[in-house]
Amino acid sequence: MLKRLSIKDFAVVSATELEFGPGLTVVSGETGAGKSLIVDALGFLSGLRADSGMVRHGAQRAELDAEFALEDSPAALAWLREQEFDDGAGCQLRRTLRADGGSRAWINGRPATLSQLGALAALLVEIHGQHEHQALLSRGSQLALLDAFGRHEAELSAVAQAARAWSALLRERDLLNAAGDVSDRIDFLGHQLGELEREALEPDAIADLVAAHRRQAHGAELVEACDTALERLGGDSDALPAAVQQLRGLLARMQAHEPRLGEVDAMLEGAAIQLDEAAVLLDRIRADLDIDPGQMQQHDARLSRLHELSRKHRVPLEALAAHRDALAAELQSLSTSAKRLEGLGAEIESAASAWRGAAAKLGKARAKAASALGKATTALIGELGMGGGRFEITLEPTAGDAPDAQGGERAEFLVTANAGQPPRPLRKVASGGELSRISLAIEVAALGLDAVQTMVFDEVDSGIGGNVAGIVGRKLRDLGSRRQVLCVTHLPQVAAQGHAHYRVSKAESDGMTQSAVRLLDDAGRQEELARMLGGIEVSREARAAAKRLLREAEGTPAA
């Protein structure tokens, strides 16, 4: 819902700020006062192309700012989150139009493109009037309104789900077909995998092999070193253990003179124990050393094969096992692709059949809803002063066999305002006033079921008067009970139906014409309606008639 609209240096408006609430808000004023500037401002905030002629004379730029509450606009909230423009439960649209023809736009204070501004505004406000920016002229919006009227949520969900399943299978088939004939690749992978699987390639196995090879390569040196160490750790008088014991004896004699030598003796005792354990382990290692030229050759041969595989597959030794597993996975995938491709044909046909069934069910529901909405709108068109007018909705099948999440048809709104004339697409209706009233009839007939919460009608009462004007006003008020409605009008019968009323006036200041917008209280509304009824000279009769219109709008009998 639109909460606030701020306009600065826009056309003949110097600066104004308007606040809006729920229900029907009407805007009136003298001819040329700038009543439609509010609609124009919302149009530019909805992404219309910049027009430097809309910048007030003498100003560098026009500034437009609108604030919306989004509690009842889940689609807009979802769009803001997706585009990373979200900022709580509100939304601010801002745009500047420069006198040199440029413009800039912001969403919630962040720079935005005009396409982003237009995409978001389409979820927030619909403008119906004598301008190009009208949501109901879009065939996508027409289909969405028809589905909302028919309450086709369940059918749409089923169609969309079936379309996604069908599309996923088609993409899988395309990927498999893109691989082409994989028999050569399967043979190549089988050969490579065979030579890799003949070797123990796990990192631990390779590490053990390298260690064993190193022991064999340095076997003589290892034997000599072990023998020398064992000799030094043996039981001879010049061996290390004997020397340690001699030191302990020497220090024991001196311990009475220096107690701290006891700590040294304890350390030497531990060292003697460690030397004994080292000698035992060294003896075991020496016994394990076996210089075997044949084993050395085996280790050399295995390492040579591993290094050859490493060079051939261009991976380090320690990565050979992972490379082997990757080749095995690819071979498994390719080996099953042909079987998968055969099975996909049946799955795709089943998915297509499921989509066609869901789409047919949705199509029947749409046809029923189109007939009901067409009849209801035709009746309202007659009430709105276009006797003989007719509204129809045609459903045209979509082209091609591709899965479509929106179903198998598109809607086209057709209308004729005169009896005997064939209906034409709504977007080709020439008369702006007729188009506004037709849009109003469609929205009222659809009970305001589309997702957009704010609807703007510009000069919806153009070319009508009398009883028809009263009917238009009541229909707008009815629509305002379900949606926020803004209406620019020049008819008192329509203005009287508003829940709120703004008056636009113009005056000359410093040689320049300026417009001002004022929210009217009850007395001001009565005076404005009297002016609209009686012209420049407001008579007592005009004021009485204005009072009567207001009382009738509120459902109170005239006094």
From TrEMBL:
Belongs to the RecN family. The keyword Ribonucleoprotein does not apply. May be involved in recombinational repair of damaged DNA. It comes from Luteimonas colneyensis. Pfam families: SMC_N (PF02463). Residues 1-509 form the RecF/RecN/SMC N-terminal domain. This is DNA repair protein RecN. Keywords: ATP-binding, DNA damage, DNA repair, Nucleotide-binding.
